[in-house]
TrEMBL record:
Protein name: MFS-type transporter SLC18B1-like isoform X2
Keywords, ordered alphabetically: Membrane, Neurotransmitter transport, Transmembrane, Transmembrane helix, Transport
Domain Major facilitator superfamily (MFS) profile: start-end pairs: 94-488
GO cellular component, one term: membrane
PANTHER family found in the cross-reference section: GH10249P, MFS-TYPE TRANSPORTER SLC18B1
Organism encoding this protein: Acanthaster planci (Crown-of-thorns starfish)
Mode of membrane association: Multi-pass membrane protein
SUPFAM superfamilies reported for this sequence: MFS general substrate transporter
Family membership: Belongs to the major facilitator superfamily. Vesicular transporter family.
Recorded name of the encoding gene: LOC110985776
Segments traversing the membrane: 95-116, 128-147, 159-178, 198-218, 230-250, 256-274, 295-313, 333-353, 360-379, 391-415, 427-452, 464-485
Classification via Pfam families: MFS_1
Residue stretches in coiled coil: none
GO molecular function: transmembrane transporter activity
Length: 520
């Protein structure tokens, strides 16, 4: 090309590069090779191979982009290297803060389970009203979690996390004084109001904690989330036990005051322990952009299925176990074992999701296992199996693992799908996904007991679990067919425009061999 100066090594000058025609990735390989001298054919081949690898394997480019996120990216494990197993001080401080607060928050939420229904019925509340008092907590979380996920980058993750814990702890203490309400109406109204506000605070803290984990552990999202889920499970196990003991020792007020005060005490500790996440320049994530991705809807269906399956057992499992002649202590031990096995399984499958990146396969296997578990739990009247303790307990063991397989990889799958479609992996994206995930899980937690109680009353426990097994098979088929469609018509056939733009833009070092051949 006229006016294009080259050095002795044959490298074009900056002027030549600036005025060179733009190279697009849709240019045929044959055209490029014809224009390129034989001496640089190997360089062209290497460049085209890099582009082909990026198109065929979006996961690799996702990992490569991970270390560009956030102001603390230097402290995080790099995405284009081997996954780091040694965590930094920043990550350790963050994780300790989140797990401490999570355990305290969940324990405070769950202390009322063993004694509140008795107290409420003594004040004249019906069982329906008592059930709604429990469910309205999840309803508030479902409504507000996506909102908090949207505004999280602006208000700050640490502030939202601590503020949510403060609101929840304060409401826990106030709930201890509702027994002094003079009338049944005021008692009912204050119960509902405090549970709603507690749900709002819980949704803020849980949304922020999930976003912080994804932001601080870009290469270990599944493992970190699953360990935090295990800690939440421990809190849900010890909360009712502590609540029952304190209620027996000091009456209605003592459990709420003690655990609420403990939760408050952890807030200043976490304030100094937890680093700040995000900056004032962080942008809010786009909910509309996220919901345009088909994979997000499919994964949210799996989250809903898993949370409904867990909530389904709350009002139905105890009466079912009583038919096996189990006493109250043995039934309590079954629930304790169920929670413990779920927590352990969550860590295992969260770790596997991180290592293998096979989130969809794990969720498909979990849905299939869930179907088997609920067919045996009834047992289904169509199987003609005997109703025995070994069969029922075996089904619960299978159910613990399979529900964890459905739920735990889902957050990582949503995050990877959003990143593959070109959404920047920043605090805005993490906040939106954590808000959606928490909201959908809360919706399932609210619907699960309602669906379980209604189906058991209308069809009996055996047919109710059969219907739930059918929903697991439906979820599995949706995952399978969507995976085929996504490969044949989605990721396997076309590149989203956002990623196509990123492929067109390359550095001078990558483009110079091509430009050198075209210009000579």
């Amino acid at each position: 090309m006229d006016g294009c100066q080259t050095s002795e090594e044959g490298i074009p000058s900056p002027t030549c590069i600036i005025h060179a025609p733009e190279i697009h990735t849709d240019k045929s390989e044959a055209d490029i090779l014809e224009a390129q001298p034989k001496s640089s054919v190997s360089q062209v081949g290497n460049h085209l191979a890099e582009v082909a690898v990026q198109v065929a394997s979006p996961t690799s480019s996702i990992n490569k982009d991970a270390n560009e996120d956030g102001p603390e990216s230097s402290a995080l494990p790099t995405g284009n290297s081997e996954e780091s197993t040694k965590f930094t001080l920043y990550q350790k401080m963050t994780f300790v803060s989140i797990t401490i607060a999570t355990m305290a928050d969940v324990a405070a939420f769950s202390i009322m389970t063993p004694f509140f229904p008795i107290e409420a019925e003594s004040r004249g509340l019906s069982s329906v009203t008592v059930g709604f008092t429990f469910s309205i907590f999840s309803l508030a979380s479902f409504v507000f979690s996506p909102i908090f996920g949207k505004i999280l980058p602006v208000v700050g993750a640490r502030f939202m996390f601590l503020a949510g814990s403060f609101v929840s702890a304060g409401c826990c203490i106030l709930f201890g004084f509702i027994d002094e309400m003079p009338t049944q109406t005021t008692f009912t109204v204050f119960c509902m109001v405090l549970r709603v506000v507690t749900g709002i605070g819980a949704s803020a803290s849980m949304t922020a904690s999930a976003a912080i984990i994804a932001y601080a552990f870009p290469n270990n999202v599944g493992l970190a989330s699953s360990v935090n889920e295990m800690v939440a499970g421990v809190g849900s196990m010890i909360g009712p036990a502590i609540g029952g003991l304190l209620y027996s020792a000091g009456g209605f007020k003592l459990p709420f005051i003690v655990l609420g005060a403990v939760d408050l005490c952890f807030i200043p500790i976490n304030y100094f322990l937890m680093p700040e996440h995000g900056t004032k320049n962080e942008k809010m994530g786009s909910l509309f952009q996220l919901l345009r991705i088909p994979a997000i809807w499919v994964t949210m269906t799996c989250v809903l299925q898993g949370s409904i399956a867990m909530g389904f057992l709350d009002p139905t499992l105890s009466p079912h176990l009583k038919e096996l002649k189990l006493n109250i202590d043995e039934i309590g031990f079954v629930f304790l074992g169920f929670s413990a096995l779920y927590a352990i399984s969550a860590v295992i499958f969260g770790y596997l999701a991180d290592k293998t990146k096979a989130t969809r396969i794990i969720m498909v296997l979990g849905s299939y296992g869930g179907c088997i578990s609920f067919l045996l739990l009834g047992p289904s009247p169509y199987l003609n199996l005997p109703f025995t303790t070994p069969i029922v307990l075996s089904s619960l063991v299978i159910g613990c693992s399979t529900i964890a397989m459905i739920v735990m990889p889902s957050f990582l799958d949503m995050l990877n799908s959003a990143k593959w479609y070109g959404i920047p992996n920043d605090l805005g994206l993490n906040g939106m996904i954590s808000g959606l995930w928490t909201g959908v899980f809360s919706l399932g937690s609210m619907l699960g007991p309602i669906i379980g109680g209604s189906l058991k009353q209308g069809f009996g426990f055996g047919k109710a679990t059969t219907l739930l097994a059918g929903s697991c098979i439906f979820t599995m088929l949706v995952l399978c067919f969507f995976g085929v469609w996504e490969y044949r018509c989605g990721k396997g056939k076309r590149i989203p425009s956002s990623r196509r733009i990123s492929l067109h833009s390359s550095t001078d070092e990558e483009r110079s061999p091509l430009l050198d051949g075209i210009n000579t």
